[in-house]
Design brief:
The structure holds 2 protein chains of 2 kinds. By secondary structure, chain A is mainly α. Chain A has helices at residues 3-14, 16-31, 38-63, 71-84, 86-89, 91-115, 120-139, 165-183, 185-195, 197-202, 207-233, 245-254, 266-285, 291-312, 320-329, and strands at residues 144-145, 235-236. Chain A is 73% helix and 1% strand. In chain A, strands 1-2 form a two-stranded antiparallel ribbon. The longest helix of chain A is centred in the middle third of the chain and has 27 residues, at 207-233. The radius of gyration of chain A is 20 Å and the shape is globular. Chain B is mainly alpha-helical. Chain B has a two-stranded antiparallel sheet. A two-stranded antiparallel sheet of chain B has the order 2-3. In chain B, a hairpin with a 2-residue loop joins strand 2 (171-172) and strand 3 (175-176). In chain B, helix 9 (177-195) crosses helix 10. Chain B is globular and about 55 Å long. The two termini of chain B are 23 Å apart. At the A-B interface, helix 7, helix 12, helix 14 and helix 15 of A face helix 7 and helix 15 of B.
Chain lengths: 330, 330
């Protein structure tokens, strides 16, 4: 590859978020008259909130060099719980119960990864299957309608012109996480855990505590995604999150968070979620069938991790598995 | 993956621990199968009939092919192939969809070829670009399944009646043809894994990647081929199911990745490479088939099978992690 092409390539990889956003905006502006409007922007943000919470939970996980594949299943469980428990608990307590389900699932992941020292890839792969099966078992495979459908409708109302309550929650959560990751000692320690676990252990960082904590946080975020989705749809579906794992991972990777750990930011994830949401909205405006979304989302994910690998080229010596293995010795 | 290198001592110690309990470990799978059969005969009088046992085998022989491929993937340290459902769907849809164009036998071969191409994408990205196998196959599976759905618009493809189709769906000497195919492929690939240079390369690459590379083992080729093989066998799995059922849908292989992984780990093959056998995977497939039949006979709903599969996966991997730690510190 010629040197200039290579520089251009690595520039595109580095500023992919901006490249992608600009591409979507220009293409959208040309193909649809009403694409570049505040209404479109509001709808993109509003619908991005659900995947956004999943992606936010995944961000610290990836920074620490771990992975959580169970977030989609956990989201389904939380969504179902938040609606199915409404008649017994009332609407607001049921929503909190949904969050609790998410945290509980995250805590179970944490116990398996930190306590039983199972690599997070395999551990959360198993809990992905267990969670999905559990959601189908409890619900008999049927979605449940809300006993109080008006309760969650306000979540998608207009709020401050370009927001909705749920997108405002998502953006606020991303900002809080940004401050935590960048401006507090515990946030910075997380980067240390992801960059080099042995070094983090030598530095006296409680690696197991951090890893356990971020799995609970990821479960909580998946719970929040499930509760928001279920309340605004007034339906608790046992399949609510089953197809959202890949979009969430893709959004995080678009933002530039590396699968190898040690790098990433929640604001970049926010950007990635918005970029992917804009692309989805654009393809819907153009009447592209919904299956295509799976195709381009998968394509973007594979393309970006390949480019990351080639451009980041560290010889493949620091793999996720190596890091996950290191947690065993901690 | 290069997990071994981060656990000095784990591998040299493993064979010794293995031979000490080798009799028990050799007998454990047959014992488990006998125990499940005894349990089954208590649960239902119709369990221990030749017809039921053949039906059990028949239901799992197609997915068993994917499990055989997954054994190669696991042995060479590639963890798991999560794109199995997508490749199964591709194989099935092409095998039926192309029947009217090229005839039933070429269509079946074409289906297997297309699925192998899916495996080739995985193989290149994992073997040569060295990206994490779980993420690659998760992404490629999402992409290919989306493509499969796009291909048929989410509908069903029906088989045209043909002599080939009724042969594959029928019996040979009282045993279903798919069971024959499963056992013949298993025997062939057992010989390949245990008696050929390619098989030994798999063990070497999974046991110690760096050392194998230094010893002129074609590490990249070996890893890539394991994934191509899994794609090919997934395609065969899809073709078998499609011809047996006479129809194919994109969700035809949903959940098969978990059945394959769990069958592999029940057989005692470590997901982290360097150890495993096809015959033991066949044992794992039979055990899973018996468990799922027991669940049906007891009258539990279908998702209970997923719950059982996930829990078994978790427990077996946790035990594997524990044993590796123990042998590592001895």
């Amino acid at each position: 590859m010629p040197a200039s092409l290579k520089t251009l390539g690595s520039l595109v990889v580095r500023y992919r978020l901006l490249v992608m956003l600009a591409g979507v905006l220009v293409f959208g502006g040309f193909t649809q008259d009403d694409f570049l409007t505040l209404t479109t922007f509001q709808s993109i943000l509003d619908r991005a909130a659900v995947v956004g919470f999943l992606a936010l939970g995944l961000t610290p996980i990836l920074i620490a060099g771990q992975i959580d594949l169970s977030i989609g299943s956990v989201m389904s469980l939380a969504a179902y719980a938040a609606i199915a428990l409404q008649p017994e608990l009332g609407s607001l307590p049921a929503a909190f119960a949904g969050l609790g389900v998410g945290m509980l699932a995250g805590a179970i992941n944490a116990v398996i990864v930190v306590g039983f020292k199972v690599t997070s890839l395999v551990a959360t792969l198993a809990t992905l299957l267990i969670g999905a099966s559990l959601a189908l078992l409890i619900s008999n495979g049927q979605p449940v309608s809300s006993a109080d459908p008006m309760f969650g409708l306000a979540l998608t109302n207009e709020f401050l012109t370009v927001l909705s309550p749920r997108s405002a929650l998502f953006i606020a959560a991303a900002l809080v996480m940004f401050v935590w990751l960048k401006a507090t000692p515990s946030g910075r320690n997380l980067y240390a855990v992801g960059s080099s676990m042995p070094a983090a252990i030598s530095a006296g960082i409680n690696v197991n505590g951090y890893v356990a904590g971020i799995f609970v946080l990821s479960g909580f975020c998946a719970g929040a995604a499930g509760v928001l989705q279920a309340l605004s749809a007034a339906t608790g579906s046992p399949l609510a999150g089953s197809a959202l794992l890949i979009p969430a991972i893709t959004a995080v990777v678009i933002g530039g968070t590396r699968l190898e750990g040690g790098r990433g930011s929640s604001l970049a994830t926010l950007g990635g979620v918005v970029a992917l949401g804009a692309l989805t909205t654009l393809s819907e405006y153009n009447g592209i069938p919904s299956y295509t979304q799976a195709v381009y989302t998968g394509l973007i994910l594979i393309l970006l991790i390949t480019l990351d690998r080639i451009a980041g080229g560290n010889g493949g010596k620091t793999t996720r598995t190596l890091r996950s293995a290191a947690v065993k010795q901690a | 993956m290069t997990l071994q290198t981060s656990e000095p001592g784990a591998r040299p110690a493993a064979p010794a621990a293995f031979s000490a309990g080798s009799l028990l470990s050799m007998l454990s799978i047959p014992l488990a199968i006998v125990a499940l059969m005894v349990l089954g005969s208590f649960v239902s009088p119709s369990f221990l009939t030749a017809r039921n046992l053949i039906n059990i085998l028949n239901a799992y022989s197609a997915v068993g092919l994917a499990a055989i491929g997954s054994t190669f993937v696991a042995v060479c340290g590639g963890l798991a192939d999560l794109s199995i459902p997508a490749n199964v769907a591709m194989g099935a849809l092409v095998a039926l969809g192309a029947q009217s164009l090229v005839g039933p036998v070429p269509a079946a071969l074409l289906g297997i070829l297309v699925a192998s191409l899916g495996g080739l994408i995985n193989g290149v990205l994992i073997g040569y670009v060295r990206i994490n196998p779980i993420i690659v196959t998760l992404g490629s599976g999402f992409l290919l399944l989306g493509l499969a759905q796009l291909l048929v618009g989410g509908g069903i493809v029906y088989a045209e009646p043909s002599a080939f189709g009724s042969f594959v769906a029928g019996n040979l000497l009282g045993v279903p043809v798919s069971v024959w195919i499963f056992f013949i492929v298993a025997l062939l690939l057992h010989v390949v894994l245990s008696r050929t240079p390619f098989g030994r390369w798999n063990f070497a690459v999974g046991g110690n990647y760096e050392a194998s590379a230094a010893s002129a083992v074609p590490v990249r080729f070996t890893k890539a081929t394991a994934f191509v093989l899994t794609g090919l066998l997934s395609g065969m799995c899809g073709v078998l199911i499609a011809l047996s059922l006479g129809q194919a849908r994109p969700i035809i292989g949903a959940g098969y990745e978990f059945v394959a992984i769990t069958a592999v780990v029940i057989g005692g093959t470590s997901l982290f490479g360097g150890r495993g056998s096809i015959l033991r995977t066949v044992g794992g497939v039979i055990i899973l088939a018996l468990i799922s039949n027991l669940i049906v006979l007891i009258g539990w709903p279908t998702p209970a099978t997923g719950l059982a599969t996930g829990s078994i996966l978790l427990v077996v991997v946790a035990i594997d992690a524990y044993l590796r730690r123990r042998t590592g510190t001895q």
